[in-house]
Amino acid sequence: MSLQTLSPVNFKSWKELESLSKNEFKLNALFESNSKRFQEFSIQNKDFLVDFSKNLLNEEVFEQLINLAGEADLKNAIKSYFAGDKINETEGRSVLHTALRTSKTNSAKVEGKEVFEDVQSVLTKIKSFSDQVNSGERKSYTGKKFTDVVNIGIGGSDLGPQMIVDALAYYQEDITPHFISNVDGDHVSETLKHLNPETTLFLIVSKSFTTQETLTNANTVRDWFLKSATKADVKHNFVAVSTNISAVEDFGIAKENIFPMYDWVGGRFSLWSAAGLSIAVSLGSKKFQDLLDGAEDMDTHFKTSEFDNNIPVVLALLGIWYNNFLGAESEAIIPYTQYLQKLAPYLQQASMESNGKSVDRAGVKVNYQTGTIVWGEPGTNSQHAFFQLIHQGTKLIPSDFIGFKNSLHGNSKHHDILMANYFAQTEALMKGKSKEEVHKELENNGLSVEEIQKLLPFKVFDGNKPTTSILIDELTPRSLGKLVSMYEHKIFVQGVIWNIFSYDQWGVELGKQLAKNTLKDIESSQIENQHDSSTTELLKYYKS
Ligand SMILES: O=P(O)(O)OC[C@H]1O[C@H](O)[C@H](O)[C@@H](O)[C@@H]1O
């Protein structure tokens, strides 16, 4: 079944939300007038507590947002998504990364065709390969145990696996992970300079196996390897993950060393597939399964919960409220753990590549905002970097604060300080600091009336800045899987309501073609392609 193609701006709920958005939403007053606000605007699902009460909305707005999901036929869209319908219509594909973590139902269908057994057989291959590497049973070409593993890939074949491996470093096996993504030769050389070809395992990950950066890097790495080894040794130290089996074989990788991917799994949602081989190798097969199980927990919650009690749905609707009705252009992701440093860059691809579209599902240019700008950094570091702008700047930036009840290494003194900041910031962003409070503070500090008058306007905080607190028991492979799946479904819901196709990326494809032509101009003696005068002069300057 195809997704419906109605423009959301014609929905009754959209019009209601437009008129509601003209009201003022003062968080302090909303809390004062409703002692149950936290209970009404929070959702707990096992180890996840999502408190969205510090957002600029009241019961009426929430009701209309839920109506919006209803009018957009979200219920049937979710059915189509999990049923493996070809909802990625412009590429003629299903969107079934959820099938990669399906374990409970023993069934996952792509357009009616059962794929469960096939998915499980690849998963078994991933697990036994990573177990063999970690136990030392699978050895390098000189018979040594692998000490390092290098993932060579870009975009979805890099960001997801890298974010997970980084986030779960606490659980790491005795092998050091590395990631080569950028075609920047300095990045490659910098990584290789520390590595020994005799003990390094290379994973070339490319769904298409045509990506310029990945193939260039893979060739460079293989040439480096061949300085110490022979072509026959490649099969011991190189494996590949791809849908394009013949291109991988042409590259010189043996069939038994190829892990398949599926065209019904988008690159930016592929960390659950063999594209996550670096995760399985770095963390061990058990932890990889835990990650999948956590994602499946969230899939089940998303599929079965009513919209007003459904974490991804509510997060998606809040995003739409800010983006389409209150004029916000971006949203910040602030995890209070250094382990999640790469979460924002990962979500940038997942979200912005998916919903950065301006033509609707009927092929018509939209007349409303779609995908937001996603950015962020862990707290407390970000408090000393960009929080000033969130507190006192002119922009509206709704922010997700992600925190954990327990630290991993058990340093509770540090953890309490970290979490005190987590709670204090959302409270301060909401409450602000009134003129009266500032006045009193300055008076207590002994400032004169004149000095107080001069300083006061700069020390006032308007407050009323919205945040959502996502409080999780502990950062584990399982809870991380659940968190990532939560954001994946948020992205899906927003795409459904915005009436856009979230699973293609024609804008990126254009960039790939353009670079090829420009490279020809750099490599040949003449600039043959037609460029604007700025680009022509820049190219001439570079070539000189
Ligand atoms: O895995 P590959 O085929 O090499 O693709 C790597 C990346 O290429 C492009 O940037 C696409 O837009 C991404 O979605 C994809 O993840």
Automatic annotation (TrEMBL):
Catalysed reactions listed for this entry: alpha-D-glucose 6-phosphate = beta-D-fructose 6-phosphate
NCBIfam families: PRK00179.1
PANTHER family cross-referenced by the UniProt entry: GLUCOSE-6-PHOSPHATE ISOMERASE
Main location, first listed in the record: cytoplasm
Keywords assigned by UniProt, alphabetized: Cytoplasm, Gluconeogenesis, Glycolysis, Isomerase
Protein localization: Cytoplasm
Superkingdom assignment: Bacteria
Taxonomic source organism: Psychroflexus salinarum
UniProt-recorded name of the protein: Glucose-6-phosphate isomerase
Cited CDD domains: SIS_PGI_1 (cd05015), SIS_PGI_2 (cd05016)
